[in-house]
Amino acid sequence: MQEQHYNHVLVAVDLTRDSGLVLQRAINIARRNQDARVSIIHTLEPLGFAYGGDIPMDLTSIQDQLDSHARERLAEVADPYGIPREDQHVVVGMPDAEIHRFAGEHGVDLIVVGSHGRTGFALLLGSTSTGVLHGAKCDVLAVRVGADGEATE
Amino acid sequence: MQEQHYNHVLVAVDLTRDSGLVLQRAINIARRNQDARVSIIHTLEPLGFAYGGDIPMDLTSIQDQLDSHARERLAEVADPYGIPREDQHVVVGMPDAEIHRFAGEHGVDLIVVGSHGRTGFALLLGSTSTGVLHGAKCDVLAVRVGADGEATE
Protein backbone atom coordinates (compact mmCIF):
# COMPACT_ATOMS: atom_id res chain seq x y z
CA MET A 1 0.00 0.00 0.00
CA GLN A 2 1.28 3.43 -0.83
CA GLU A 3 1.81 5.48 2.27
CA GLN A 4 2.75 9.08 1.96
CA HIS A 5 5.57 10.02 4.26
CA TYR A 6 6.49 13.65 4.59
CA ASN A 7 10.07 14.64 5.32
CA HIS A 8 9.88 18.40 5.25
CA VAL A 9 6.76 20.41 5.96
CA LEU A 10 6.70 24.08 4.97
CA VAL A 11 4.17 26.33 6.68
CA ALA A 12 3.36 29.52 4.83
CA VAL A 13 1.87 32.15 7.13
CA ASP A 14 0.49 35.63 6.63
CA LEU A 15 1.28 36.64 10.23
CA THR A 16 -2.39 37.20 11.07
CA ARG A 17 -3.58 35.85 14.40
CA ASP A 18 -4.39 32.47 12.86
CA SER A 19 -0.78 31.79 11.98
CA GLY A 20 -0.08 29.96 15.23
CA LEU A 21 -3.02 27.65 14.61
CA VAL A 22 -1.78 26.80 11.13
CA LEU A 23 1.71 26.17 12.48
CA GLN A 24 0.34 23.93 15.22
CA ARG A 25 -1.43 21.80 12.66
CA ALA A 26 1.73 21.49 10.61
CA ILE A 27 3.68 20.45 13.68
CA ASN A 28 1.07 17.77 14.44
CA ILE A 29 1.51 16.37 10.94
CA ALA A 30 5.28 16.47 11.25
CA ARG A 31 5.09 14.50 14.51
CA ARG A 32 3.03 11.82 12.82
CA ASN A 33 5.74 11.64 10.16
CA GLN A 34 8.65 10.65 12.35
CA ASP A 35 9.34 14.24 13.31
CA ALA A 36 9.62 15.65 9.86
CA ARG A 37 11.40 18.97 9.65
CA VAL A 38 9.12 22.01 9.90
CA SER A 39 10.07 25.28 8.23
CA ILE A 40 7.98 28.42 8.34
CA ILE A 41 7.93 31.11 5.70
CA HIS A 42 6.41 34.53 5.33
CA THR A 43 6.60 36.40 2.07
CA LEU A 44 6.73 40.16 1.75
CA GLU A 45 5.80 41.70 -1.55
CA PRO A 46 8.57 44.02 -2.67
CA LEU A 47 7.71 47.69 -2.30
CA GLY A 48 8.86 48.22 -5.85
CA PHE A 49 5.89 46.28 -7.15
CA ALA A 50 3.56 48.85 -5.67
CA TYR A 51 5.58 52.03 -5.77
CA GLY A 52 8.45 51.41 -8.13
CA GLY A 53 9.16 52.78 -11.53
CA ASP A 54 8.05 56.35 -11.29
CA ILE A 55 9.34 57.03 -7.83
CA PRO A 56 12.99 57.98 -7.75
CA MET A 57 13.60 57.56 -4.02
CA ASP A 58 15.49 54.65 -2.65
CA LEU A 59 13.08 52.29 -0.90
CA THR A 60 15.79 49.98 0.36
CA SER A 61 15.79 51.25 3.91
CA ILE A 62 12.01 51.05 4.15
CA GLN A 63 12.08 47.54 2.72
CA ASP A 64 14.71 46.64 5.29
CA GLN A 65 12.52 47.96 8.08
CA LEU A 66 9.53 45.98 6.84
CA ASP A 67 11.70 42.91 6.51
CA SER A 68 13.03 43.34 10.02
CA HIS A 69 9.54 43.88 11.41
CA ALA A 70 8.30 40.73 9.66
CA ARG A 71 11.18 38.71 11.10
CA GLU A 72 10.26 39.84 14.59
CA ARG A 73 6.61 39.00 14.08
CA LEU A 74 7.49 35.62 12.60
CA ALA A 75 9.69 34.86 15.58
CA GLU A 76 6.81 35.76 17.90
CA VAL A 77 4.71 33.15 16.10
CA ALA A 78 7.33 30.44 15.66
CA ASP A 79 9.56 30.68 18.75
CA PRO A 80 6.87 29.44 21.18
CA TYR A 81 6.51 26.30 19.05
CA GLY A 82 10.23 25.61 19.15
CA ILE A 83 10.92 26.30 15.49
CA PRO A 84 14.63 27.15 15.28
CA ARG A 85 15.45 30.58 13.90
CA GLU A 86 17.29 29.02 10.95
CA ASP A 87 13.99 27.42 9.91
CA GLN A 88 12.14 30.75 10.05
CA HIS A 89 12.22 32.49 6.70
CA VAL A 90 11.12 35.91 5.51
CA VAL A 91 11.48 36.31 1.77
CA VAL A 92 10.66 39.19 -0.50
CA GLY A 93 8.75 38.44 -3.67
CA MET A 94 5.45 37.19 -4.97
CA PRO A 95 4.09 34.68 -2.43
CA ASP A 96 3.27 31.80 -4.79
CA ALA A 97 6.54 31.98 -6.65
CA GLU A 98 8.68 32.36 -3.53
CA ILE A 99 6.94 29.54 -1.69
CA HIS A 100 7.28 27.20 -4.67
CA ARG A 101 10.90 28.16 -5.13
CA PHE A 102 11.70 27.56 -1.47
CA ALA A 103 9.85 24.24 -1.55
CA GLY A 104 11.76 23.09 -4.59
CA GLU A 105 15.13 24.11 -3.23
CA HIS A 106 14.63 22.57 0.22
CA GLY A 107 12.99 19.25 -0.57
CA VAL A 108 9.63 20.27 0.86
CA ASP A 109 6.99 17.59 0.28
CA LEU A 110 4.05 19.22 2.02
CA ILE A 111 3.06 22.88 2.08
CA VAL A 112 0.56 23.89 4.77
CA VAL A 113 -1.37 27.12 4.37
CA GLY A 114 -4.27 28.71 6.14
CA SER A 115 -7.58 28.94 4.32
CA HIS A 116 -10.21 31.43 5.33
CA GLY A 117 -13.04 29.89 3.40
CA ARG A 118 -14.90 33.05 2.67
CA THR A 119 -14.37 34.04 -0.92
CA GLY A 120 -14.28 37.76 -0.32
CA PHE A 121 -11.90 37.59 2.58
CA ALA A 122 -9.67 35.14 0.79
CA LEU A 123 -9.46 37.56 -2.10
CA LEU A 124 -8.52 40.37 0.23
CA LEU A 125 -5.71 38.26 1.57
CA GLY A 126 -4.34 37.84 -1.90
CA SER A 127 -5.61 34.28 -2.13
CA THR A 128 -2.26 32.92 -1.07
CA SER A 129 -3.74 29.53 -0.34
CA THR A 130 -5.24 29.10 -3.79
CA GLY A 131 -2.19 30.65 -5.43
CA VAL A 132 0.13 28.28 -3.62
CA LEU A 133 -1.89 25.30 -4.72
CA HIS A 134 -1.65 26.40 -8.30
CA GLY A 135 1.59 25.09 -9.67
CA ALA A 136 2.81 23.37 -6.51
CA LYS A 137 5.10 20.41 -7.12
CA CYS A 138 4.16 18.76 -3.84
CA ASP A 139 1.09 18.20 -1.68
CA VAL A 140 -0.69 21.23 -0.28
CA LEU A 141 -2.90 21.17 2.81
CA ALA A 142 -5.17 24.14 3.28
CA VAL A 143 -6.13 24.33 6.93
CA ARG A 144 -9.46 25.95 7.60
CA VAL A 145 -9.06 28.86 9.98
CA GLY A 146 -10.71 32.19 10.65
CA ALA A 147 -13.69 33.74 12.35
CA ASP A 148 -16.14 31.02 11.38
CA GLY A 149 -13.57 28.27 11.22
CA GLU A 150 -13.11 27.32 14.87
CA ALA A 151 -15.68 24.59 14.46
CA THR A 152 -13.19 22.53 12.51
CA GLU A 153 -10.77 22.30 15.42
CA MET B 1 -2.45 20.23 22.11
CA GLN B 2 -4.92 20.63 19.31
CA GLU B 3 -5.07 17.51 17.21
CA GLN B 4 -7.17 17.48 14.10
CA HIS B 5 -9.29 14.38 13.85
CA TYR B 6 -11.17 13.76 10.64
CA ASN B 7 -14.47 11.91 10.69
CA HIS B 8 -15.53 12.05 7.08
CA VAL B 9 -13.13 12.38 4.16
CA LEU B 10 -14.53 13.34 0.77
CA VAL B 11 -12.46 12.51 -2.30
CA ALA B 12 -13.30 14.53 -5.38
CA VAL B 13 -12.09 12.82 -8.55
CA ASP B 14 -12.09 13.74 -12.21
CA LEU B 15 -12.04 10.07 -13.30
CA THR B 16 -8.66 10.43 -15.01
CA ARG B 17 -6.16 7.65 -14.42
CA ASP B 18 -4.82 9.38 -11.31
CA SER B 19 -8.12 9.07 -9.50
CA GLY B 20 -7.20 5.77 -7.87
CA LEU B 21 -4.01 7.30 -6.51
CA VAL B 22 -5.92 10.19 -4.97
CA LEU B 23 -8.45 7.80 -3.48
CA GLN B 24 -5.68 5.65 -2.03
CA ARG B 25 -4.19 8.64 -0.28
CA ALA B 26 -7.57 9.58 1.17
CA ILE B 27 -8.05 6.03 2.43
CA ASN B 28 -4.64 6.16 4.11
CA ILE B 29 -5.64 9.33 5.92
CA ALA B 30 -8.97 7.83 6.93
CA ARG B 31 -7.19 4.81 8.41
CA ARG B 32 -5.00 7.07 10.50
CA ASN B 33 -8.18 8.73 11.78
CA GLN B 34 -9.83 5.71 13.36
CA ASP B 35 -11.29 4.59 10.07
CA ALA B 36 -13.03 7.78 9.15
CA ARG B 37 -15.73 7.40 6.55
CA VAL B 38 -14.57 7.89 2.95
CA SER B 39 -16.97 9.17 0.30
CA ILE B 40 -16.04 9.72 -3.31
CA ILE B 41 -17.65 12.24 -5.60
CA HIS B 42 -17.47 13.08 -9.27
CA THR B 43 -19.21 16.12 -10.66
CA LEU B 44 -20.61 16.38 -14.15
CA GLU B 45 -21.26 19.81 -15.53
CA PRO B 46 -24.81 20.00 -16.79
CA LEU B 47 -25.07 19.94 -20.56
CA GLY B 48 -27.35 22.94 -20.35
CA PHE B 49 -24.46 25.10 -19.20
CA ALA B 50 -22.72 24.49 -22.50
CA TYR B 51 -25.58 23.96 -24.90
CA GLY B 52 -28.65 25.33 -23.20
CA GLY B 53 -30.76 28.30 -23.98
CA ASP B 54 -30.76 28.41 -27.74
CA ILE B 55 -31.09 24.69 -28.33
CA PRO B 56 -34.68 23.48 -28.17
CA MET B 57 -34.00 19.74 -27.98
CA ASP B 58 -34.36 17.85 -24.78
CA LEU B 59 -30.94 16.93 -23.46
CA THR B 60 -32.26 14.85 -20.59
CA SER B 61 -31.58 11.49 -22.17
CA ILE B 62 -28.06 12.46 -23.15
CA GLN B 63 -27.44 13.79 -19.64
CA ASP B 64 -28.75 10.51 -18.27
CA GLN B 65 -26.36 8.55 -20.46
CA LEU B 66 -23.42 10.68 -19.34
CA ASP B 67 -24.51 10.28 -15.76
CA SER B 68 -24.78 6.53 -16.13
CA HIS B 69 -21.39 6.33 -17.82
CA ALA B 70 -19.82 8.38 -15.04
CA ARG B 71 -21.33 6.11 -12.39
CA GLU B 72 -19.79 3.09 -14.09
CA ARG B 73 -16.40 4.74 -14.35
CA LEU B 74 -16.57 5.86 -10.71
CA ALA B 75 -17.41 2.32 -9.62
CA GLU B 76 -14.39 1.04 -11.58
CA VAL B 77 -12.23 3.43 -9.56
CA ALA B 78 -13.87 3.00 -6.16
CA ASP B 79 -15.01 -0.64 -6.02
CA PRO B 80 -11.46 -2.07 -5.91
CA TYR B 81 -10.80 0.04 -2.82
CA GLY B 82 -13.89 -1.24 -1.06
CA ILE B 83 -15.85 2.01 -1.13
CA PRO B 84 -19.52 1.02 -0.82
CA ARG B 85 -21.74 2.08 -3.69
CA GLU B 86 -23.79 4.28 -1.37
CA ASP B 87 -20.64 6.32 -0.72
CA GLN B 88 -19.99 6.78 -4.45
CA HIS B 89 -21.62 9.93 -5.75
CA VAL B 90 -22.08 11.40 -9.18
CA VAL B 91 -23.66 14.82 -9.08
CA VAL B 92 -24.52 17.25 -11.82
CA GLY B 93 -23.55 20.87 -11.35
CA MET B 94 -20.58 23.16 -11.03
CA PRO B 95 -17.79 21.18 -9.31
CA ASP B 96 -16.87 23.69 -6.59
CA ALA B 97 -20.44 24.41 -5.60
CA GLU B 98 -21.52 20.75 -5.61
CA ILE B 99 -18.50 19.57 -3.66
CA HIS B 100 -18.99 22.29 -1.04
CA ARG B 101 -22.68 21.55 -0.82
CA PHE B 102 -22.09 17.83 -0.39
CA ALA B 103 -19.40 18.50 2.21
CA GLY B 104 -21.69 20.78 4.18
CA GLU B 105 -24.63 18.40 4.10
CA HIS B 106 -22.64 15.30 5.05
CA GLY B 107 -20.36 16.57 7.79
CA VAL B 108 -17.22 16.28 5.69
CA ASP B 109 -14.18 17.68 7.49
CA LEU B 110 -11.52 16.97 4.87
CA ILE B 111 -11.77 17.23 1.11
CA VAL B 112 -9.03 15.48 -0.87
CA VAL B 113 -8.44 16.49 -4.48
CA GLY B 114 -5.80 15.71 -7.05
CA SER B 115 -3.45 18.48 -8.06
CA HIS B 116 -1.55 18.39 -11.30
CA GLY B 117 0.88 21.12 -10.47
CA ARG B 118 1.34 22.45 -13.94
CA THR B 119 -0.49 25.69 -14.33
CA GLY B 120 -1.57 25.11 -17.89
CA PHE B 121 -2.77 21.59 -17.35
CA ALA B 122 -4.55 22.57 -14.15
CA LEU B 123 -6.39 25.23 -16.08
CA LEU B 124 -7.39 22.73 -18.73
CA LEU B 125 -8.87 20.56 -16.01
CA GLY B 126 -11.02 23.42 -14.90
CA SER B 127 -8.85 24.01 -11.86
CA THR B 128 -11.13 21.94 -9.69
CA SER B 129 -8.52 21.72 -6.98
CA THR B 130 -8.07 25.47 -6.68
CA GLY B 131 -11.79 26.05 -7.07
CA VAL B 132 -12.57 23.58 -4.30
CA LEU B 133 -10.15 25.28 -1.98
CA HIS B 134 -11.79 28.61 -2.58
CA GLY B 135 -14.68 28.87 -0.20
CA ALA B 136 -14.29 25.47 1.45
CA LYS B 137 -15.61 25.31 4.99
CA CYS B 138 -13.24 22.50 5.93
CA ASP B 139 -9.66 21.44 5.33
CA VAL B 140 -8.60 20.67 1.78
CA LEU B 141 -5.66 18.45 0.86
CA ALA B 142 -4.41 18.73 -2.69
CA VAL B 143 -2.50 15.56 -3.50
CA ARG B 144 0.20 15.96 -6.10
CA VAL B 145 -0.38 13.58 -8.99
CA GLY B 146 0.31 13.46 -12.68
CA ALA B 147 3.06 12.80 -15.13
CA ASP B 148 5.81 14.48 -13.15
CA GLY B 149 4.27 13.83 -9.77
CA GLU B 150 5.21 10.21 -9.10
CA ALA B 151 8.27 11.41 -7.26
CA THR B 152 6.11 12.47 -4.36
CA GLU B 153 4.93 8.92 -3.70
UniProtKB/TrEMBL annotation, chains A, B:
* One Pfam family per UniProt: Usp
Where is this chain's protein located in or outside the cell? Cytoplasm
Q: Does the keyword Secreted apply?
A: no
Question: Has UniProt tagged this entry with the keyword tRNA processing?
Answer: no
Q: What is its main location?
A: cytoplasm
Cross-referenced InterPro entries: Rossmann-like_a/b/a_fold, Universal_stress_UspA, UspA
Residues in UspA domain copies? 6-144
Q: Which family does it belong to?
A: Belongs to the universal stress protein A family.
Specify the protein name: Universal stress protein
